[in-house]
Write a structure and sequence with these properties.
Elements (H helix, E strand, L loop, with lengths): L2 H58 L17 E6 L9 H13 L4 E6 L1 H10 L16 H16 L5 E11 L2 E10 L19 H75 L1
Parallel strand pairs: 1-2, 1-3
Antiparallel strand pairs: 3-4
Helix pairs in contact: 1-5, 4-5
């Protein structure tokens, strides 16, 4: 190799080292955010379990007038709440979720409530019917936004705009494992053999109380899935950046080896030229 090739190799090494510094920083940031996200997941999980028990108990006391939110009906149209990320560089986090939703929706009539920038871009590009485009940034969606989503979904379901609501998100299992899943949201699957709530615990008609509690329950489910999705995204990004760091290290080692060989070849050539010149004298 020539001297110019050595310069190119050095430039390439510096470039890869700069990239590795960025990916290392992103890995550290993702690790830090993941710790907080895992805590949010653990805190959010019990909320909807308690509300589901309350709804089931109320419905047990009003079996003769079941709420519209618990009635099964013929599924003509399905609404999918798809929770994806706002950025890339997270391995197959978004792609795996969209692939699963595609399998679920093939050949069916459906609409989508996208949550997250990537979800909004993906389904907007496909020309799907969008229930709303307001929740296009996952990082800014909070409890109040979940309440708005829940009211929007419950109103649409009660008005029979769609007959089923499914939430698609990525469930956090561990720092190395995140699984895309689809879970039914509406109609609600009530617990069987639930103990009836007595009048000493609640006041008012059961049907009216259920109609008020269901949006809160749906809101709690949505917030819980958002927490799961956020933790999954940070875990996937940490894994992807860790793999990128290892790949960068391997590339640098390979480039250093080529650089040393090129340097050795240049030195050998210079020694040969000096010896040849001395012999000519």
């Amino acid at each position: 190799m020539s001297g110019a090739s050595m310069k190119q190799i050095k430039t390439r090494i510096k470039s890869v080292e700069s990239t590795r510094q960025i990916t290392k920083a992103m890995e550290l940031v993702a690790t830090s955010k993941l710790r907080r996200a895992k805590q949010r997941v653990e805190n959010a999980r019990p909320y909807h379990e308690v509300l589901l028990g309350a709804i089931s108990g109320l419905q047990a006391g009003a079996a003769e007038s079941p709420t519209v939110f618990a009635q099964e009906r013929e599924v003509k149209k399905t609404c999918y709440v798809v929770i994806a990320g706002d950025r890339g560089l997270a391995g197959g986090y978004n792609a795996n979720l969209f692939r699963m939703v595609k399998r679920m929706t093939d050949g069916t009539d459906f609409c989508v409530l996208p949550v997250g920038k990537k979800s909004l871009e993906h389904f907007g590009r496909l020309g799907c019917e969008l229930v709303s485009t307001y929740f296009g940034v996952t990082g800014t969606v909070g409890i109040g936004d979940c309440a708005q989503m829940a009211k929007l979904l419950c109103d649409g379901f009660a008005a029979e705009k769609y007959d089923r609501v499914i939430v698609a998100y990525t469930r956090f299992q561990s720092m190395l494992s995140q699984v895309p899943v689809c879970e039914p949201l509406l109609p609600i699957t009530l617990r069987e053999n639930e103990t009836r709530y007595s009048g000493a615990l609640v006041e008012g008609e059961a049907e009216e109380l259920i109609s008020r509690i269901v949006p809160q329950y749906v809101s709690g489910i949505l917030y819980s899935t958002l927490c799961e999705a956020a933790a999954s995204e940070h875990g996937a990004r940490r894994t992807a950046m860790n793999a990128a760091n290892k790949n960068a290290g391997e590339i640098i080692d390979n480039l250093v080896l080529h650089y040393n060989r090129a340097r050795q070849a240049v030195i050998t050539q210079e020694i040969t030229e000096i010896v040849s010149g001395a012999e000519a004298l």
